[in-house]
Design brief:
about 350 residues, alpha/beta, eight-stranded parallel β-barrel, 11 helices, binds phosphoenolpyruvate, binds manganese (II) ion
Length: about 350
Amino acid sequence: MIVAMQERAGEDQIQQVIEELVRRGFEVHRSTGEQQTVLGAVGARVDFDIRDIEVLPGVKQVHRISSPYKLAGRSFRPEGTVIQLRNGISIGGRDVVVMAGPCSVESRDQLFTTAEAVARAGARVLRGGAFKPRSSPYAFQGMGEEGLRLMREAGEQFGLLVISEVMEISQIELMAPYVDIYQVGARNMQNFNLLRELGHMRKPVMLKRGISATFEEWLLSAEYIMSGGNYEVILCERGIRTFETYTRNTMDISAIPICHKLSHLPVAGDPSHGTGRREKVAPMARAAVAAGADSIMVEVHSNPDKAVSDGAQSLYPKQFTELMAQLRMIAAAVDRAVA
Ligand code: PEP
Ligand code: MN
């Protein structure tokens, strides 16, 4: 941490800051310039609130240098994390893994028709919500455990792994036999109790970015899971809220290379929630792969016009097949391959 003192700060004020830093366990290196004194405070305290120093008399600015997340930070595993799943699939290596399926599991027929189509097009993971975090309490809330049973069965039948959203602690154990990856939705990114419990599981978690989360907040949420011993976390950019209303969210493609720089965790892109509009999904999926995404999650529905949730952003199976062909070319251009 760097503490820059005000130009007119007196020696007593400087001493007070030094004493406070030492009291908090920092080693202090002082640089006394002609105009200004700057203090370098060394000591990896992660639970430190820099505002406690900012408010001391004579302090001009405080900069944190070390990140407040340790396990999620790139330096913890500079070589990157590769998450091994079943069927020889791994996320975070050279392969780009495509996850696809409906927003919600609605019926056996809807799920199986969609699963067959996405598997034939080359998806490796079937997505589908059984517990749905809907903005309105009157909207369809999901099929629950029956939906999970269908997900597993469709996964077995078409050779797909399964990802589905967990919304609360009581669903964690219930979901374990059905899913290969837990999805934590944007609305739950800061549900710290849920994250902590998922940290006790030995199953990968895909952590979506909250609609207004900074990178630091997002990585601290990953840290909650990892601090329980579960290091298998995938970060998923799914669009953030900005002043723009044309799209449902603003897909932050730059989040992909930024997360790769800040963290060793694999990064996924979800252009469906990222844009909310079907015709914008393919271009943003292509952009995400070009930007280095390790995985793409896309909503696909056998009959999007009749979907109970997110139909407007769900691809028709034919569009998804075309997209897969494009993603294979883009992956090759950035020295990757679609799994
Ligand atoms: C979803 O994947 O269907 C979903 C609800 O996503 P998000 O949490 O990103 O809104
Ligand atoms: Mn959805």
